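#lab-general

N.A. 3:47 PM
ok so I finally got the sequence cleaned up, no stray characters, all 203 residues accounted for. can someone with queue access submit it? mine expired

B.Y. 3:52 PM
send it over

N.A. 3:53 PM
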Amino acid sequence: MELQKYTDFLAANQETILAIRDAAFALHASVGQTYNDHLPYSYHLGMVADSAMQYGAEVVTDEQDILPVVFGAYYHDSIEDARLTYNDVTKVAKQFMNEAQAYMAAEVVYALTNDKGRTRAERAGEHYYAGIRATPYAPFVKLCDRLANMTHSFTATDSSNNRMRAVYQQEWEHFHQSITSESTDQRLALPERMVQQILALFD
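B.Y. 4:20 PM
back already:
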């Protein structure tokens, strides 16, 4: 999407975007969720959404898709961690956008919700990644999520982040391949600049 048109849309719809943000922050605060044990979960959600808005022009094909992508970024953990159902997410999304947009937003959130499993590998297995690759904008939002997590882990120094830094490094190649779609649909693409930003963390 043409960058100026994209940034103009974000500016014109700032009030709605802030309302989505505030609602997502309040949701996760209401269930007492934190990030890295001591940070408010809004810290992570904000990082994910900031990346989605920064790089979204490289994957969005229609301005009608911008709000669903932003919503997906802010609400990507709402089913998994904040006790919402798919229908709950759809209902919330309809407060900010039309029915078709709300459906797209809910599909992104659903695709990014881990499967049931006892281990990290079971929760994010091939079935999980296949769902991401089949859902417009889900690979992009998942990459935004991983970029946020890795940026934090590679810049913080406590033992938890040292452990996760090693996990993310070990997982990177498989993760990248797993969210990479062979489709020519731009909505399933991964911005190369984001990939390079992650690779730079390894240095």
